[in-house]
Amino acid sequence: MVSQQQEREDKFDVDVGFVVPELTDLLPVEGRLETATYRLNNTYYDTSDRDLQRLHLTLRQRVGGPDAGWHLKIPSGPARTEIRSKSRSRSVPRALADPLLGVRRGQELAPVASLSVTRDVVRLLTASGDLVAEVADDFVESATMGETSTLQSWREVEVELGPAGDESTLRVIGDRLLDWGARRSPFASKLKRALGSDGDQTPGRDLETLGGLVGEYIAAQCLAIYSGDLGIRLNQTVVHPTRVGVRRLRSTLRIFSPLFDADKAAALEEELIWFAGLLGEVRDRDILRDRLLGQVAELPGEYVLGPVASQIESTLQLERSRYLKRVVQEMQGDRYRQLLDTVNEWWTAPPFTEQASQPSAGVSGYVRRAERKLNKRLRNAGGDVEALHRARKAGKRFRYAAELSEPTLGKKASKAVKEGKRLQELLGEHQDSVVSAAFLRRLGAAAGASPDQNGFTFGILLANEWHRAEKIRHQLAKRYG
Prior knowledge:
It is built from 14 helices and ten strands. The protein is of the alpha+beta class. The protein folds into two domains: about 1-200, Hypothetical Protein Pfu-838710-001 (Beta Barrel), CATH 2.40.320.10; about 210-480, CHAD domain (Alpha solenoid).
């Protein structure tokens, strides 16, 4: 049995003689302070390659304190999602080990560090006992595990936001701590501090070369793919960002093909196409659901005959569940595991050719070629639906190439990204109308053939989609001829 909660905290380094300031005046009306002291013994786990640390994940077993058990912490914007298991097992519970199958690529999870913490806690509570914030004064003793062991000790203060608090609570308490001599910690977690330089396994890249610039972008997409793997296994809504990571990586292989070993790039692209196709079936249903339910809601009531919205939603939900189930099944197979291994290889050491050692300023030529290809496809499309879809794909590749170039080309690249995004939204709207029209025709035909249903509303929605698509084709024809 596991539970989930959001964790939002700020960390501060303090000297041995630091005194936590008075916080009573920060209490809400009729609120109260609560204090406690705990002895916490934490054992942190990772693979031998530090795969969890690379994704900024933390897995630990805690003995002592009110939250004793196993904890998996996952980045979530400025906060973290903490998944807890109260299992007393000496090995990682299956409920936490299984979601990490892709991240660890079959490797065993083993102890990498032990941290003992003496924690003095001050909790700020509302009159009804709801937690506003918790201020934890920690004295930490750490020991890394492996062939050699590094021992450290330090003192830090954590301010964690409670359900009854908000960001201003963190800011006010943080400002007071700083006024009293605390310093914002450069470490995101105790484990990173304990591991030191070993906590970050991502190799440094020289952004002055094409290989360094492109390698940095590749690494970001590999991170998105691995993060998506974890999210899908945890049943989180991450199909879209995962698919985008796959597409960006594939686009990079295409646009910057002279920089890569051709055979290895072709092999990776084939597998990315396969996985993107699986994810696309799920994502298409998400887009259709939001799009069509919004359109139904905008129709005058007298034009909505029958349970149109519920029929659209139930049909798409059923299809989405079927396609998501296939994604999850394929993620258990050898082909997908091999894809993860290949992505990991490209993450750590992309198979660059000698051309990758050229100065990063050369990225402008690749961006220009991507733009020329986009414009050519738009000029030649002539209102053809499939040709516009191919132009849309070229537009994405242009935008992603511009994104990649931003560290080198600066504002010029940022402007190209914005232009590419605007065009991509227009072409994307056209493609969504085409896909939506096909879906509506299918549902409308089924409704028309059923004695207890009516296809009238589906016909209205279908006509509207045809009109939108035609209007966009007219706009593009005026602009590109």
